[in-house]
Amino acid sequence: xxxxxxxxxxxxxxxxxxxxxxxxxxxxxxxxxxxxxxxxxxxxxxxxxxxxxxxxxxxxxxxxxxxxxxxxxxxxxxxxxxxxxxxxxxxxxxxxxxxxxxxxxxxxxxxxxxxxxxxxxxxxxxxxxxxxxxxxxxxxxxxxxxxxxxxxxxxxxxxxxxxxxxxxxxxxxxxxxxxxxxxxxxxxxxxxxxxxxxxxxxxxxxxxxxxxxxxxxxxxxxxxxxxxxxxxxxxxxxxxxxxxxxxxxxxxxxxxxxxxxxxxxxxxxxxxxxxxxxxxxxxxxxxxxxxxxxxxxxxxxxxxxxxxxxxxxxxxxxxxxxxxxxxxxxxxxxxxxxxxxxxxxxxxxxxxxxxxxxxxxxxxxxxxxxxxxxxxxxxxxxxxxxxxxxxxxxxxxxxxxxxxxxxxxxxx
Length: 412
Fold this sequence. Notes:
The chain contains six helices and ten strands; from the N terminus they run ααααββααββββββββ. By secondary structure, it is of the alpha+beta class. β1 (286-287) and β2 form a beta hairpin. α1 (2-105) packs antiparallel against α3 and α2 (113-119) packs antiparallel against α3 (124-243).
């Protein structure tokens, strides 16, 4: 009965440990999926922000063009005013000339000042002189009239062109502003989606902590049960030894007790084996790919030879549960780190799945990639990295890219 009781206790606790471990595994899988969704949302967010920035630049340029058009229209208005003033001035001059001729002509004969001026000539020489004066005045009047007509036509055409240009620019500006409002609305929605995903990540973290506590309690209970089973086995063994000194009947009973002890031993051994199988082997080596192996490095939970393992080695402040390289930006942001597109020495550079690594190669379409920024010069970034695709998987493998602002950076 005691053996059956121990077996039942061990079975129940082992099942609890198995179920908890399965729940922990499911939690981590769900978290990994959420991190991937966050990475995708972050990429969309970056794209929207770039479009908003580009659209803002177009709006500012359109505003500048409208201001310039207004300046040209204002200048044309001044020129038209000046031309009108000149016409008025010339008209006044012509009137003054007519008055002077009238005075010289004296009494009118035909009612036409110019004609009377000619008729009242004193002699032939005076007639020639007066004819020359009239012709000159007529030519000046004709030139003045032509100048006014040409100026008016020129200024009117230019004014019409500028008004049309201004109308087109205003229409473009309104269209760009409408697009900008749409982009900002999409950006707000994207931000809300990211916030919701980050909340789920935090909820999962809380659940994981609770599950890990439950796992520790269940494993502890399983150990107690195993220890109790060992005690029972030892007690039965002592009883069997004492029974051997009695009669043949006692020996028969002793043999039966020994059989029961062996049965208990088998139960304990089976339970102990199951308990050990649930514990991680912290001393197992990780294959290097060349036949050798490396033991686990304290504080670094990532696989040796991966880009994440290398970055964790050179930047110990990085998290141990940030997922694949392409997920690090979202995971770091959720953990409270500053994440942006501004490169700086000592930061972690993140390449999203399928993103070009400086135009030299492309990050894995499923996992992405990470590296450690060594130095920055303008928009040029030099970084080190690890990975099985390099001759030195454990790093450092150094590279330089020129478009630093196109990537995500995690700052300590």
